[in-house]
Write a structure and sequence with these properties.
alpha/beta, hydrolase, disordered N terminus, AB_hydrolase_fold, 20% strand, 12 helices, eight-stranded mixed sheet, hydrolase activity
Length: 358
């Protein structure tokens, strides 16, 4: 097999994104997965007797800033104090100088980390959202959600849905000012890795309600979305010992995140099973658009390709953008790869609505 290109059609527009069907030749030499002797040690975690975990190494964090000399202003706002959930809002400073008629799309972002690591304040995600707000020219709301195993799924999905309704009803003076700059007819749910899984599952929940907010959402952007299943895909087998996401670590993160007693063919993990497949009809009915991006260096790429294929079969307006090389989480660590992703997102926006803000 070889990589192939496919042209997708969005509404009446023909949008050519590079859609690469992932290949793995069976004749390739595949390394056997390394034994999972101590996955907690590999993940640098300490399992506590009560089922919680200690995370010895905290990722570097960056505070928000309202420094007027920066191109992006950022501020943290509380969503639910009892759950310790909050949102970091990123506002392009140029919005303050724009004609009020030129409003910005709103991207609601969920960070990665296998459901058990990191924060919206983590420097890698702060920098990513800061640069996305600047390059894509959009208002970004990065959501802090509860982590597993202290709060197993669906806790993160519940936090995500609560955040969406908080955004709609928030009365904070600073946040209310965003109404002058945000185009609430162009709202996108977005996430990378585990955040992609959250954006997808939160989207399914919102779409099922068919309320005012579901009609505000224009689409979903899934960047290397974190999905799995009990059956190993070719990409998972080929990249079983990948240094960025090994099969052993992948399995452990799912074990810590899923409800106790279920396997990886639960619909939270595997979007091709259970009621989640039926719920795609709601996304199709609402006319949401979906962008899925991934690379062939990601062990989960076959999952992404399978999800795009499923959506196509269900009549969802979906675009797949797949590239060669790279690795899981590359956009979080490589600013140049993030910039390439922002170009794809901006082109995606441009194909859906009159997107001319510069």
């Amino acid at each position: 097999m070889v990589f192939q290109k496919s042209t997708m059609t969005l509404f009446s527009l023909s949008i050519a994104f590079t859609f690469l069907t992932y290949l793995l030749t069976l004749s390739q030499t595949q390394l056997s997965p390394k034994p999972c002797n101590d996955p907690y040690k590999q993940l640098n975690l300490i399992l506590n007797p009560n089922g919680t975990i200690t995370r010895p190494n905290k990722s570097p964090e960056t505070p928000p800033s309202l420094d007027p000399t920066l191109p992006i202003l950022s501020k943290d706002l509380i969503i639910n104090q009892s759950k310790h959930t909050w949102a970091r809002i990123y506002l392009p400073r140029k919005a303050l100088d724009q004609n009020p008629k030129n409003r910005f799309p709103l991207v609601i972002f969920f960070h990665g980390g296998g459901f058990i690591f990191l924060s919206a304040a983590s420097t890698i995600f702060h920098d990513f959202c800061f640069n996305m707000a600047n390059d894509v020219v959009a208002v970004v709301a990065s959501i802090e959600y509860r982590l597993a195993p202290e709060h197993r799924l669906p806790a993160a999905y519940e936090d995500a849905v609560e955040a969406l309704h908080w955004i709609k009803s928030n009365q904070d003076d600073w946040f209310k000012g965003l109404k002058n700059y945000v185009d609430y007819s162009n709202v996108f749910l977005m996430g990378s890795s585990a955040g992609g899984n959250i954006a997808y599952n939160a989207g399914l929940r919102v779409a099922a309600r068919d309320d005012e907010f579901s009609k505000m959402i224009k689409g979903i952007i899934l960047v290397q979305p974190y999905f799995g299943g009990t059956h190993r895909t070719n990409s998972e087998i080929k990249l079983a010992n990948d240094s960025h996401l090994s099969l052993c670590n992948n399995d452990m993160m799912w074990e810590l995140s899923l409800p106790i007693g279920v396997d990886r063919d639960h619909e939270y993990c595997n979007p091709t099973v259970g009621d989640s497949v039926l719920k795609l009809e709601n996304i199709r009915r609402l006319g949401w658009f979906v962008l899925v991006t991934d690379c062939d260096g990601d062990p989960l790429v076959d999952r992404s390709i399978g999800l795009v294929s499923l959506m196509e079969k269900k009549g969802v307006r979906v675009v797949g953008h797949f590239t060669r090389g790279d690795y899981h989480g590359v956009q979080d660590r490589d600013p140049l790869k993030a910039k390439e992703l922002f170009v794809v997102i901006k082109s995606f926006f441009g194909s859906l609505f009159n997107y001319t803000i510069e």
